[in-house]
Every structure is written in C-alpha cells, then in structure tokens.
Amino acid sequence: MNPLKPVKVSIKDIKTETNDVKTYVLSLKDSFKALPGQFNMLGYPGVGEAPISYSSLVRNGYFEHTIKAVGRVTRFLDGLKIKDEIVLRGPYGRGWPMNKARGKDILLIAGGVGLAPIRPVIQIILEKRDLFDDVSLIYGARNEKNMLFIDEFDKWRKGISLYLTVDEVANLPVFSTGKRRSKGGWKHSVGLVTYLLDKVKIKPDKTFVFVCGPEIMMRFICRGLLMTGIASSRIYVSLERRMKCGIAHCGHCQHSGLFVCKDGPVFSYRDVRGLPDGLL
Ligand SMILES: Cc1cc2nc3c(=O)[nH]c(=O)nc-3n(C[C@H](O)[C@H](O)[C@H](O)COP(=O)(O)OP(=O)(O)OC[C@H]3O[C@@H](n4cnc5c(N)ncnc54)[C@H](O)[C@@H]3O)c2cc1C
Question: Is the pTM of this model over 0.90?
Fold first, then answer.
C-alpha cells in the first residue's frame, strides 16, 4: 500500500452538530483498523487536504469524522451532501495510550471540537467498561449550542461521570467563578474547564489524563494537573500542527526533532513540556 495514495470514499450520512461543525459517516470496503486518537488526511481533488481525527471507532468498515468549518478545505467539505465522494488517506499517527490506562482511572478533558478525538475513547470505555476503573469527562465549550454530541451525553453518563461547563450563558460572557447558574436553563458550570479540576477526585498514582482542545486551554490544564500531584508522564495531549504529508516526510509539522504527524499527534506531556519552540 502506498501511504500517500488517497482512496475515494462516499459520504453515507451527515449529522449537524453545531452551526459550523458536522459529523460525516464514511465507510470503506477493505477491512482496516484505526486507534482512538489517530487521524486521516481528508480532502477533495483540486481543493486540498486537512488532517482530521477519527471521531468514532471503526465498526464493520464504518467510521466518523467530525469537522469544524474554518478555512479552505473544511468549508468545502462543509458544503458536501450525502453520497458525495471525498478522498482520504490514513490512518496516521499515534493514538491515546488505551493499553496503559487499563485497570486505571481515566480523566478525559476536552474543549470545543477537541471532544471529537476523545469520543472514540469514550466509545471503547463504554464497550469494555470492566477494563477501566473510574472514568470522568470534563468538557467545556463556548456555550451550550457549541457543544458536540450533546444527544449522547445521557448514554455516556451510564459509565462515565460528566462535568460540563460553558464560557457564556444566553450569549452573556461570564468571566470567572465556575459556580452553577440556572440562567438560560443551563444547569451545569459556567467558567473555564480548569475550574472543574477541583470537582474530580484525582488519584495521582492511579489516573491517566487525556486532554484535547485549544492549545491555551491544554497549557493551563496541564499546569493545573501537575499541581494535583499527577506526573507529566501520565498526562497525554493531542496536538494540532499544520501538516502536509502525514508520514514525517515533508517536515511541515516538525518541532525540536518531533514530528507531530508521526510521533504524535498524541504525546505525553512529559515529552512536549517546555520544548524550546513552545509545543505546549
Ligand atoms: C492531527 C490533527 C487532527 C485534527 N482533527 C480535527 C478534527 O477532528 N476536527 C476538526 O474540525 N479539525 C481537526 N484538526 C484541525 C484541522 O486539520 C484544521 O482545522 C484544518 O486543517 C484547516 O484546514 P482548512 O483548509 O479548512 O483551513 P485553512 O484555510 O488552511 O486555515 C484556516 C485557519 O485555521 C488555521 N489552521 C489550519 N490548520 C491548522 C492546524 N493544523 N493547526 C492550527 N491551526 C490551523 C489557519 O492558520 C487559519 O487561521 C486537526 C488537526 C490535526 C493536526
């Protein structure tokens, strides 16, 4: 197989998550495996490609990608319909360390569209609930309308403790607090995800943490986590960098000897903390 050769795939279904995020259901005939946290290069001939994480497990050849329309490629994909064909290559990269986390507590922390690469982790945990101990998810978004997969939360709650927060309620930004408010019907927290760290019981020697979201959020979360006593080697982050080839040939995503596409996108915080060019 040529890892740079894209395959055609038709869109089986599209689900609108928010005003600028959609989930695409795709399928491939040939059997293949993809690990939670890995990504595909997704694109359209003549338009370009973008790295997009798997937002679901692969089951019977079916899998999902959840994409926020931000620029040239992703806006083009946003305009496609069911049965349209796109091209993809992958899966690429290193995923979340699910094996290491067996028998341990897992704390998942996501911001905005960063919940997409965490969702297959949640699906595995729910499928094989006995393999893991306490599992919690802290998820924050700008407001309730910007939250992904909201209709799955009740199902997730059957195996996972959910802690939700928004930056603003009824379009009014609320700076600070992290206190519960009932404004606009929102019954969960208001404030940054970092405030919710206090609500979760973290056992430093037993917990693995997987974090994905805007870089500024990950930076503060990782610092906050260190203060709980958890080692940087137990904290994993999924990094976003501009990439072209996806297989560590072109060097677009290279930093301090690390290729985000091949050595990552999931890294332990220990490995990327304080690198000179600011990986995190
Ligand atoms: C490993 C990996 C997994 C990703 N998974 C997802 C996912 O599951 N869902 C999703 O919606 N997005 C994901 N992204 C981000 C997605 O790749 C970018 O949004 C996309 O490449 C933008 O391409 P574009 O042509 O639409 O935008 P462009 O026209 O290229 O750029 C639009 C804006 O986005 C910025 N930008 C573009 N690419 C990146 C990047 N890689 N990192 C930071 N800023 C960027 C540009 O600087 C510009 O401001 C992932 C990125 C990586 C590296």
Answer: yes
